[in-house]
Amino acid sequence: MRFAGVDIPPELVFAHADGDVVFFVGAGASMASPTNLPNFTELVKRVAQRTGAEEPTKRALKAPDVCLGRLVRPGVDVHGLVAQEIRGRHRNALHDAIATLAAAPGTPRIVTTNYDNHLHSSLRAIGAKHSVFEAPAMPAGGDFEGLVHLHGRLGQPPRRLIVTDADFGRAYVTQGWAPAFLREVFAEFVVLFVGYSHDDRMMEYLAKGLSSKTRERYILIDRDKAKKWAGLGIRPILYTRDQHSMVTATLERWGAWARDTPFDRAQRIRRLAGETPPADPDEDDFLVVSLDDERLAKEVCAVAKGDEWIDWMARQLPFKKLAGTEDAAVDDRVLSHVANWAAQAGVGTEAFRHLDQALRDTPGPVHPMFVSAVLRRITFEQVDDEQRSHWLRWVLDYAVGQHGAELQWLWGSEVNLTWPDTMLLLNHLANQWRPSTGSGFWALRSPRLASGGGLEAGMRRLLAVPSQPDKSRELLSWLTAYLEQAHRRVTSAGRSFDPWSYARSSIAPHEQDRRAPSEPEQVLVDLGRDGLAQIGAVAPELADAVRGLWFDSPAPLLRRLAIDNLWKAAEPPAGVKVSFVLARRMLFDNEVRHEVYGLLASAVPDLPGDEFDDLVQAASVGPELSAVRHDDPTVAVRYRDRAAFELLHWLVKYRPGAAAPPALAEIERRFPEWEPSPHPDLSRYTETGSRSIEDDWPWAPLEFHQMLADDAGSAIARLGSELPDDVERGWWGAGSMLERVVGEWPDDGFVIWDALARVEVRECVILGWSTAPLDESQMDRVAAVLSAGDLGGLAGPVARLLHPWTSDTALSRRWVHRGDGRGLARRAATMVDDTESLSGATDLHSAAINSAPGVLVDFWIDVAVDDARTGTYPGGGLSSEVVSALEDLLATHSRLARASLLRQLNFLYRADPAWTAMHLLATIDPNKLPWPQVEEAWGILLHGQFSEDLLQSGLREWIPVCARRVGQGSEITGDLMRLAAVVAVHSTMDDAERLSWLTALVANATTDAVVQWSAEVGELVEDLEPAARASLWGRWMKPYIALRVGGAPRLLEAPEITAMLGWLGGLDAAVNVREGVDLLLRTSVGISSETGSWRQVDVPPEALEVAPGEWARLLAGLLSATAHPLAPGVAHWASGAHTTLRALGADQVSMATIRSEFFRLTGNDLDERTA
């Protein structure tokens, strides 16, 4: 990157942006005005002069530390003299530039061999927080932040300055703390040296810290002094000879760039808009570098308008990548922006020639994004015919098998393509072949197209245009060649059968053809059929020629098309059509059977008598035995006769008044069992349609009821005959009819019960009684029958009889108060087969509801309710009868019964806490039982209701335990967190206890679970009255947020903050919103960048009206703390919030920050989005 005329390697710029660069600063940084400090050599001269010693020779000055060492003698404080020489000066612009640049990524990292404090002053001046380290107390070189004075600094006792050879010996040899620090620095960080010269003695010492395991090192140096550095493994960054001020200008420009936000850079790009790219090399380089950032690449594309901009863009890496001339990696999002720019800038515009020239020498392959962008442009936007034609041809040269769908958009669009373009595009679309896959009838298929919808739409529009003979001839010539090529493809490698030709039963629309008309095979068949028909209307001679060509084609599909056209054509007369079929020996040609039969059906009524007789004679002969191709002559003859039999019947059928020919009578005499096929023209015929269970009823319910009344024995016998021996329990035609009969006439059920003892019959009878309007006497009879009979296999129907699925309360509870009903329930419980209900069940909750034990549990719950209402059991708790029944069910059908009882846990606990605690609560304790068993139980009980008493029975304390044990992605997490939210919002526990409970919940739950809980709390609070919301905020919500912001019981994360925004959205007082904003902004955590419904922001626009300034401050702070791109839902909310807050006149500083940070995180300018 170029700053003030100096090229800084991009990798160094990017390393600096990542906070990965250490700046080493030498004496040259302090020599400029107004600092004007001497370099090391000049410093030695000044100290020597002040001691009265002779001036060191030029040779001696090559080791200035040695010179200073020689000046040391009693009474001469060399260290103090050095300090005096560098004291009392002012910092210069280079100090400020270094400090600003070093601090731009955050905390600065600077190492200096200078003794002055000017870098420290510069860092303080810009407000950069930093630590200062001074020799010999060095930090860890691989992990330090701040300013390191490697050789000491003013402010220390002067004796600690590293100035003499003895000092350097201690630092670099005997004590060795300097090279130890340097080795870690050079190994961990990229280094940039500033203010060092080629003969600098300090560099010799610094080189002692270099090793083979170091990262990149750079030095800013003038051009004439670059060679020495290669030997030290240091890469020189060159500026013009003796123009040392360029160093300051370069670092200043670099620092300004580093401090810029992406939004600042976008604004700078916008200022560069013009007819030509900028002439300033720095600005040009800035644009080049901006193309590496997808957010800024979009801005560059927005200003790049005109011929010269196209030429400039064509020289850049993203364009070269799109054009296929560069293999370097480029962000796909950048490529997308540049591809769309190129299509907009150079396709359909006056700049078209420039883009065309830029692509002319492209070796390819062109990037698919580029091709797609061009296709979208010429399909959906206004482009003149010449350019559209040019770019279509360009696309077809590069669209190698991956743009079929987009080309179909163009084909199916309203764009008026020229005729040559139409044929080019059609040929391209229809010649993308799918490789052979699978086996059987469709082992080889038609053109490989992602979808045929576009192909069909374009074809319909093409056929809607009045035919022009020249174009029609070209179109049908192409189709002829294409279909024959398709025939050759699918019959190659020894295959004689052509599935392509039989992709449909009929050339004309037919009920047997259920494949979508948009499929490419269907579209091309329609093209041939309708195209030839249209030509026949305007150019019959041409139609005859094409038809003749197709009759002679080896492709059966073309022959079918030809016969279909002859069949539908008004001319020639019927006799000529039939003669044509006979002459071409097509009468028994199976490849064209449907079309030949159709032609004959339309021609036979109008044939003269002698011609009809000739046709019958030809049909009577049947196909030649050589064409039958069967090894057994008897079978071949039978096949021949069958073909003649079907055709003769067909001819008689369509010839009014025609008698059966003698040949047909002879065949029927020899094969009396033969019946003519209803569809002899088709090789197969499939009936379709939907059926209901009533379609399988042998009799209507009223009819069977009457049969029972007239002759019960006969009716029962006939019913038994309708029941197959291998029928399984479940629906069968006669059975469902039987349920309906018994449901309407319950007494019929007793007749059937006594006559047929089969389980499946009695099941239907019981189910019929379950919905029947039984009177008391009938209920007595049902109870008697069931009590006396064998209920093996009938426990489920009996349970459903006692507790039917109905909204009719009287019907569902009619057995509850009856002793015989309760007796049946006890008896049915002993005959349940659990394996049937649990077989294949993946959801115990649903299995229990639909099982006999589950239904019986519901029955006994109704008994308990009935006892309570009627005062039958006034002693409190559950009656002994109910307890006994429920315990029996638990003992014999534990999983299903317990699941059903857990659904009623709230009622049972209120009715009998002691029994419920012993038999149910003890089975769901997550502290004592295996988690799979507990998770299964909680998955059911979480669907129920929870009173405060029930929660206090232990459930409330178990919620955090379950939150710890539940696995990531468990199905119960959502319901568990919903219950936890109810506890937080509605529980009557005191607030100190509530906060303790919430702390335990958060400590145990996953982040996802806590986020779900936070969102659920927001929804519950939103439903409260304002006064209640304010009360909750002060009592526990604000203290809870304070705990979480403080890191208790664990660090707060962005998704949780995002969910908490909904809490603030429910506050009605500005002061409360301010309190919440102050709390949330104490964190350095931003807003969520993850997707998922629980991570979206649930704050409606009207909530922002309470305190727009506070919301703007909060949004600005959260966006500034967010490191990763926003999830789409969060970005959408932030955009809408910005619009609302701007309309409400929120603080402009915050609004500017929101706009800038939103651009950084999404690449979109909010002002443009809302313009």
Automatic annotation (TrEMBL):
Gene3D superfamilies: TPP-binding domain
InterPro entries attached to this UniProt entry: DHS-like_NAD/FAD-binding_dom
Pfam families, per database record: SIR2_2 (PF13289)
Highest taxon above the source species: Bacteria
The protein's name: DUF4020 domain-containing protein
